TrEMBL record:
Gene3D superfamilies: NAD(P)-binding Rossmann-like Domain. Residues 45-271 form the NAD-dependent epimerase/dehydratase domain. Residues 7-26 have a biased composition (Low complexity). The lineage of its organism: Bacteria, Bacillati, Actinomycetota, Actinomycetes, Micrococcales. Residues 1-43 are annotated as: Disordered. It comes from the Bacteria. This is NAD dependent epimerase/dehydratase. Pfam families: Epimerase (PF01370). Signal peptide: none annotated.
Length: 395
């Protein structure tokens, strides 16, 4: 199926035919290890944006599953089973040079750059998908999977929730919003390249991601962990920054691990080919229920935990006076990152929790197609905080 209103029409070729995917859908379990080890069935993943909150979860999952992994970013890292590739997605020459000798069979596109306007987001982020896939015209790509998000339904940051919102829970077949949106541009570039180059595609519309990264643009887990650390160290209240609607209403989130699992499933199972899919954990919660639980996981004393009262209290304003205390807190606890701007993305958590509309996401489509991944959101946060503690990013 085409993502709604996207063009050109990818249904012109049977999306599940062996010649498009390079795999035989009647063959045994496509995820069996013998297809990822050696020989003609070997799978090589190119993770684009591999150091990000989504990309790093993919690298971990693919490595654990025995894939050969190429990890592309501007500042790449190499680790056992993973070969870093340095390239700038905004420089087509750099991409062509870096990828000329590579032969990935599967592409996982998770990179993005935040620009000041949506027009620039479209030019830059749509262009990065186009140029990356063009630089792989020589490669035996079978499938390319793209991460986008619920702004597909909500509209871009500069027109967030301004149009007529689709009814919740959001379903994949909703028509596009009339507002220009870089996710639509990326989908269109993906589908066009799939048609030209003969691979299958999938799009993964994620809600707010719970995951592990440092120095990235949007990271609610680390942001809340830093807020809690400042509250504990400086004797501040741990104040919910968001709206009354978010405090009281139902919502959901996306663990980076379950997102990675869905992308790998769609890339390797014919039922996942040529479709957009929502991806959330599978449970729903209210922030008024979750906030004190997260505080307890972050060891904030119960008498410092403060919920919504009267109006949103954005972190950008709440925390501005205390950011300068972070280097001393880091030194006191032997933390590895003294620069708070690489840890906390206040603006993003403010935008996310400040929404004055209900955001709940339907998971029926990929479940019906065979993807049954699930996470408990509170546990995903607890596991993430434990990992940041072990990494000495928070005390
Ligand atoms: N984070 C969330 O909560 C969230 C929620 C919903 C949807 N999404 C969507 O998910 C997608 C992925 O976002 P993310 O949050 O996973 O990203 P991220 O954590 O900010 O990571 C971005 C990755 O892209 C790489 N990158 C950026 N610019 C590059 C360039 N010019 N050349 C090469 N590599 C480049 C970065 O590495 P270098 O800087 O080293 O190059 C990094 O590896 C985006 O479309 C985002 O809107 C995210």
């Amino acid at each position: 199926m085409n993502p709604t209103n996207a063009s050109p029409d990818p249904t012109s070729t049977d999306p599940t035919s062996p010649d498009r995917t390079g795999t035989d859908p009647t063959s045994p379990d496509p995820t069996s290890p013998d297809r990822t080890s050696t020989g003609p069935g070997r799978r090589t993943a190119l993770v684009v944006g591999a150091s990000g909150i989504t990309g790093s979860a993919l690298v971990e999952q693919l490595t654990a599953d025995g894939w050969e992994v190429l990890a592309l970013s501007r500042r790449p890292a190499t680790s056992p089973g993973v070969r870093g590739i340095a390239a700038d997605l905004r420089d087509p020459d750099s991409l062509r040079a870096a990828l000329a000798a590579e032969a990935p069979t599967h592409v996982f596109f998770t990179a993005w750059q935040r620009m000041p306007t949506e027009a620039e987001n479209i030019a830059v982020n749509g262009g990065m998908v186009r140029d990356l896939l063009a630089a792989l015209a020589h490669a035996p790509v079978q499938h390319a999977a793209l991460v986008t998000g619920l702004k597909h339904y909500l509209g871009p940051f500069e027109a967030y929730g301004e149009g007529t919102m689709p009814d919740t829970p959001f379903h994949e077949e909703e028509p596009r919003q009339p507002t220009p949106n870089f996710y639509y541009a990326q989908e269109d570039e993906l589908v066009a390249a799939a048609g030209r180059q003969g691979f299958t595609w999938s799009v993964h519309r994620s809600h707010t991601v719970i995951g592990h990264a440092v120095g990235n643009a949007m990271n609610i887990g680390l942001t809340l962990a830093v807020q809690a650390t400042l509250a504990k160290e400086l004797g501040l209240p741990f104040v919910f920054p968001g709206s009354e609607t978010q405090w009281n209403g139902l919502t959901d989130m996306t663990d980076a691990g379950v997102l990675a699992e869905q992308m790998i499933w769609a890339s390797t199972d014919p039922a996942g080919a040529d479709e957009p899919f929502n991806i959330v954990n599978g449970d729903v919660f209210r922030w008024r229920w979750m906030w004190p639980r997260l505080a307890a996981h972050l060891e904030v004393p119960a008498d410092r935990v403060v919920g919504f009262a009267g109006e949103p209290r954005p972190l950008e304003q709440q925390m501005a006076a205390y950011e300068s205390e972070w280097p001393a807190i880091a030194a006191k606890h032997g933390l590895v990152e003294p620069d708070i701007s690489r840890l906390a993305s206040w603006w993003h958590t403010d935008a996310d929790l400040g929404r004055d509309l209900e955001v709940v996401t339907d998971m029926g489509k990929s479940r019906a197609a065979g993807f049954t991944g699930y996470r408990r959101t509170e546990q995903a946060f607890a596991d993430l905080f434990a990992r940041y503690r072990a990494d000495r990013l928070i005390p």
